[in-house]
Queue: 2 jobs
Job 1
Amino acid sequence: MKTALPDFLHPVSNGIPVIYCGRTNGPTDPEHSIVLERGFHFVLCTGGRISVAEPDIQQHEREHSMHEGDMLLLSPSRTATLQLPGADDALECISLDPDYFDTLPDGQPLYNQLSGYMGDGRTALVHLEQPEYEALRHTASLFFLYPNGGGLYDEDMLRHLCSLYLLQTAQLLYRHRANAPAFVKRPNEIFRNFKRLAVKNYRSAHDIAFYAARLHISPTYLSRIVKQVTGRTVRAHLAELLCSDARRLLNCSDLDIKEIADTLGFSDQSAFGKFFVRQTGCSPLRFRREKTAR
């Protein structure tokens, strides 16, 4: 993973550190919430109630509650903060590195279903019927039971296990979304490829022309596709990644404002400051001071 994972998540195989699994239970310390970001995360509530907060680009938080049998899915561009306030609250999570996900042929059907939620502006949070819940937990248990050794066929077995889990999840999302498309459409494939490029290059490339050129389409066509699939612009998707990274660097690093501006590919500190104010309503310095004062 390209970011720190919660302590309860561990590699399924030390030889293939791109698939992670873990279980945890409450109560969690409010000062040490579980943060899931920059990956494909599949969260099952296995007991009690879980509080979920998702920030939007203006830092307004949307709050949800998960109960036993609920499943939350996060793509690399989404972040969620989880709290398990009670002793009976519990979850299990499977997480995949985005680069590894992109190598899995059966990742596209899952992303096709997941992009429908993004296009509708909704969180991919569904309640599973008991047979669905039990079947998905059974598949997930294979990750937890996987022998962490140097087996000759480890990589192939894990890829097949991931494919089973992803197809199973895609089918569940399809059942729970009215009028959901069953097959991958060209616009969704283009959007997925754009998001993959954006996650890798957003710090150095802020211009739509960069992404359109690498997808071998025109900037106008890319703009139309992204708007069609998600209801948001290319600029908004890039701004979300940049703003999330900026908040993290301001909050969790000792880099000064100019160094952060350079890290994120802005021409100078002033351009970064104006961008941050547009997205959050406050300056980078004020944001850092307020976080430090808490």
Note: The chain has two domains: 10-176, 186-293.
Job 2
Amino acid sequence: MLIDSFPILIILGLFITATTMPIIKKKKIIKGVSLVTFALSLLMYIATLNRVLKLGDYYYRVGHFDAPFGIEFHVGTVECIIGILFTFIAVMVIWYSIYNINSDIREDKIPLYYFLINILIASLLGIVFSNDMFNVFVFIEIGNLASCGIVVVKDKKENIKAGMKYLIMSCLGSGLVLMGIAFLYSMTGHLNMTYIHKELVKNYTNYPRAILITSGLFTVGLGVKSAMFPLHTWLPDAHSNAPTTSSAILSSLVLKGYVLFLIKVLYRVLGIEIIRNFSILNIILLLGCLGMILGSIFAILQNNFKRVIAYSTVAQMGYIFFAIGLGTEIGLIISIFHIIGHAVTKAALFLCAGTIIHATGHKNLKDLKGVGKEMPYTLGLFFIASLSMIGIPLLPGFVSKWYLSLGSIQSNKTVLIAVILVSSLLNAVYYFPISINGYFGEENLQQKVYKSKSKPLSELLPIIILVIAMIYIGMASKGIINLIKTGLV
């Protein structure tokens, strides 16, 4: 069936269209090609998910040889959901960029930028679907270069500095991941995830230290790439200095691709039966808690608008690591659910922030007081998205925190509920003042002209759709969680 080939055809399509962009002269055509490619990819993933729900998960052979010698894709419910998530956000970000990319990037750099975006999303989808460890590593390296490229493409001193820092840290992380793959190969003789797990189940008692080292290598290596505290040091500079669309993609998609691979390694390659014999989950849980609290504290101390949102990402990634570290079924399910909810929400937040910065020319929060009068709709969208980060009921952020609290009780770790509550309060401390100072206070609103810097509906529509999608994820959370659960059985 042709539909079975959709996951690989999407990745190949993104790579192929990327190579055409540097030779297309008209910028409008480049933007259109990128947008149409991602829109078609989204429709193909929706069709693939429908096929998986009807007929079940399947393995797709890439090439002439069956596993374990050949490369294969594992196409399951969770993978299809993430494929839909990534391509949906890519469509919204590319749509937004059509109106705003020229304010961030020189016109002669635009073909290169869309080339890098297509390459990056294709590599992330390869990480999500590939069932071969070395193949994942190849996609990681491609994505590494592309993600650094979308930071430095702005071609300013601070961007180049942030991009180099990102590149160095990311390369260190890649090296640790490669060492982890080498350890797995030496223990099992396989690179295919399914076969690695089968071999480890048989003889993991013979390699206790090697498995502990391997799990540590993957945790630290992928922790660097997915901004696990305290390995997040590259993130604030990269996200705050990058073009707005790059910030949205880095925070909502790139980090999620790497943390999904970590989930695969811990729960699918090693397996929960094996990993529970080691202390790695407790370490991840501890680092998740630290990220939730300290990431928010660092956000409170920031004056730069985008740096606040960047440090918020560190805190929100802490929730994902918290869920992984619980080592329970509900923890695993909510880690994936929070990936979905946070991806949509953070894309909306960064696009709102970029719109406000472009319109006002100010990055400092002190200079943005009263912006709610000048840009009421944009700040309104930002406020609604921030409510999810804080954990207001019915929104996905609240759903994640609620189930994480239940998971903490089930694990007899009720003290962790206090960590969740404190983190939520800290989230409110740095998100609420932005909207309050934007809308209220006579001294803030003086000499501000109502709607003087508002953007037309056509430019705000991608953000509106992202916010609506965020609300839908929260309202339909029970169904999404059940869908994730069926995909993990």
Note: The longest strand covers residues 58-62.
